[in-house]
Amino acid sequence: MLFKNIRFCFQILVLIFLYLVLSVDAQESKSGQRPNILFIAIDDLRTELGCYGLPYVQSPSLDQLASEGVLFTNHFVQVPTCGASRFALLTGRSPMQSGVTRSNQAFYHGKSALSTSQTEGAQTLPELFRRSGYLTTCIGKISHTADGRVFEYNGSGDGRIELPFAWDKLATPFGSWKRGWGIFFAYANGQSREDGSGIRDLMEFNVEHDEDLPDGLLARQAIQELRAMKRQQKPFFMGLGFFKPHLPFVAPKKDWEAMSRVNIPPAPHPEKISSSYWHKSGEFYNYNMEFEKTRPLIEPARLKTRRAYLACVRYIDRQVGKVLRELDELGLRENTIVVVWGDHGWFLGDSALWAKHAPFERALKSTLMIRAPRVSQAGLKSAALVESIDLYPTLIELCQPAFQKTQYPLDGLSLKPILTGSKTAVRDASLSYWNSAISVRTKTYRLITTTEKGKPTKNELYDISKTPDPIENLADEQPTTVERLLKFIPAKK
């Protein structure tokens, strides 16, 4: 009798266990099973935010997100230019392996161009998730073009898809600017740097409302798409690529007025440096300016330009906030991984440089924050050396998509151990590339070496613990340090 009672109790416990497991499975199936992904790319956003310790920057939405997830203080891109940086992130490939060390057209031009025939493995991150059953939507600039279609700046071209097989939907709104590059180089009232009118002002702060400019339209579209995806029974991958603070500096008038009342520091080390990688900042100086185009700019001009950049950051921060609030209101927060990524850094008059296009700290370090529900430690600031190519394997490990085969081996490392706090580092050095130069960043040094036929021919060594700006080249004084850092450069596979 006792044995029968024990067996009966055991059977009851098994039934309860199975009921709980099946209930959980049913609940996960109803909610989409795997986590959603909201990937937000912000063009030209260096670590110029309040959460990075800069109290003069007004970025409350991004600061709040950083406090809820993990903020990476030593994130470095693979290449300091838009297209090549995004190519590395989206393919998960190091420039050492792909050969893409500069090109903005790598997705569709040259030996590394993506195939227009579907390959056995996924060519890009969103394609992998699409082949895993995710609904994938592109809004704004995720690859290089402003809307995911290939056109030239002047509008010529066939409009083919820049990332083949990646997106279920290209949802970028054009507004009165009518086309992709029009909304990217936009001024108020439907005007664009590329519309033939000749307008090319460095900055403009005239409009009253956020949606009078393209980035406000992107935020509105993202909210509409989130509402639609809420009704679906599938997980989603949304790529949302904001344009500002990329040139020209255009934002609502209220953002300029707000930043004009803030004391901001002058550019540190504003003098030209002695380096073969210093450039004339052609992208910046090609705009029309209300002040004299001196090199370097005189201090009042530098300060006004720095304010203009920060006004655009303030504008974009507000758009990010709108989208994140909608995510919360739709009840999607607890099952959505949010990533905010800057495609590279930007010079703000430091070293008499503007824009990017150099293998220095300011151009290679950019914003990265990840909020992964039930995984990431809220408020963690990680000083780990991480790279943009780490995002691909990280999202695979976090989401466990059904399809995981990639066309090429992934070169990055998963950051999940950093997110959970189980590790404080995943590598000892971060590598970046620019033309024939390779830049090695450790905790205290940045080595830049130019190579010919795979061998280093010229070295610059900077102590990053003293200043992020390339002021004193220590290569001749510290040859053993140079040799030690050169060993981090791998051979091409």
From TrEMBL:
Cofactor field: Ca(2+)
InterPro entries: Alkaline_phosphatase_core_sf, IDS, Sulfatase_N
Sulfatase N-terminal domain mapped to chain residues: 35-398
Top-rank lineage group of the source organism: Bacteria
EC number of the protein: 3.1.6.1
Keyword NAD: no
Keyword list, A-Z: Calcium, Hydrolase, Metal-binding, Signal
A single Gene Ontology CC term: cytoplasm
UniProt-recorded Gene Ontology molecular function terms: arylsulfatase activity; iduronate-2-sulfatase activity; metal ion binding
Similarity comment text for this entry: Belongs to the sulfatase family.
PANTHER family recorded: IDURONATE 2-SULFATASE (PTHR45953:SF1)
Annotated protein name in UniProt: Arylsulfatase
Species for this entry: Gimesia aquarii
Taxonomic path: Bacteria, Pseudomonadati, Planctomycetota, Planctomycetia, Planctomycetales
